[in-house]
Design a protein that fits this description.
Helices cover about 40% and strands about 15% of the residues. The chain contains 13 helices and 6 strands. The termini are far apart.
Length: about 325
């Protein structure tokens, strides 16, 4: 076993995080945690994982849920395609008679890529496959002084090859593959962090190329390829004799399957502005929304896809985080 791997495993034995999904080999519990944590901090995702496990303790239970139910439980986590993929994959797993046990079949699940398949496979089934995610890119790039951009084909191949080479030999014995993968993820999340890494107390400091060459802040390298776009929305919350109108977001746009109040281009006469330019940042977009309250005694004509609900029932519908922020203005 090489010095890097040995030091990392030693560090993990003393400092690894105690997380509930690490106390089981149940692939469902592990898969659920990995999907939730794809774009979410552990401290936030933990509560969602527990809530999902309580409501749907098996993959068959989850597969029997409706999309509305899953989206409602997911509300607040963002990146809602993860929730839809979660439900679709549950259907695949149940249809196949249980969880796949090979890397290729795990990767065939909806919403599961190389990293997630490697994490599930190594932790649940002792598959000898190394994980490569943002934490791994950062740790390997800094420690070995690799400046190849991580979001290029060349970089992805280079880091995947290195990560696999660092995996302990005979990982099928005693869950060593799982331990190593969890160790490098924890190390990146708690020591070799994106900002203000703990270099002075790092057990790999002496062998770290980036530290020795004062390049920690410069690594890993990522090419800027995406242009952030702005979008503007005008929402009208209609209050009509204890009722309000909402509709479901369409396929092919952000927040697919979630609900929102009346979206229009011009507020009606008599509507009261509650919030102007509420800002909400997504990965590739910055959103701005104006929010109005319109109190009326007669239901106005609306597009055909809007429907009326009791105001008190709006909490039963999954809404995007931006709409949550706007609805808080009503209080």
């Amino acid at each position: 076993m090489n010095d890097f791997t040995t030091a990392l495993l030693h560090w993990f034995r003393e400092n690894g995080r105690e997380l509930p999904w690490r106390q089981t080999r149940d692939p469902y519990a592990i898969w659920l945690s990995e999907i939730i944590l794809q774009q979410t901090q552990v401290k936030q995702g933990w509560a969602y994982w527990e809530r999902f496990m309580r409501r749907w303790p098996t993959v068959a239970d989850l597969a029997a849920a409706t999309e509305d139910e899953v989206l409602r439980e997911w509300q607040g986590l963002g990146y809602y395609s993860r929730a839809r993929n979660l439900l679709a994959a549950a259907h695949q797993i149940v249809a196949d008679g249980g969880f796949p046990t090979t890397f290729a079949r795990l990767k065939a699940l909806k919403g599961v890529g190389d990293y997630t398949a490697a994490a599930i496979g190594s932790i649940a089934f002792d598959l000898p496959v190394a994980v490569v995610d943002g934490n791994v890119y950062r740790v390997l790039s800094r420690h070995f002084g690799i400046a190849t951009p991580i979001n290029t084909t060349e970089g992805k191949k280079e880091f995947a090859t290195l990560a696999q080479a660092l995996l302990p030999e005979r990982p099928q014995c005693n869950g060593v593959a799982a331990t190593y993968n969890q160790a490098i993820m924890d190390f990146g999340a708690t020591v070799c962090t994106p900002q203000s890494p703990h270099c002075e107390t790092c057990p790999l400091m002496e062998s770290c190329v980036a530290f020795r060459e004062s390049r920690v802040a410069a690594l890993p390298v990522k090419l800027k390829t995406l242009k952030v776009k702005e979008r503007h929305f005008t929402y009208i919350y209609i209050r009509c004799k204890g009722m309000t109108a909402i509709h479901r977001r369409p396929v092919g746009d952000i927040w697919q399957g979630l609900y929102e109040p009346w979206l229009t281009t011009e507020p009606p006469c008599g509507a009261i502005l509650l919030r102007r330019n509420q800002k909400h940042v997504l990965t590739h977009r910055v959103l701005f929304a104006d929010f109005y309250l319109w109190e009326t005694d007669e239901r106005p004509p609306l597009p055909a896809d809007y429907f009326w609900i009791r105001e008190q029932d709006i909490e039963q519908y999954g809404v995007p985080r931006l709409i949550e922020l706007l609805l808080e203005q009503l209080k």
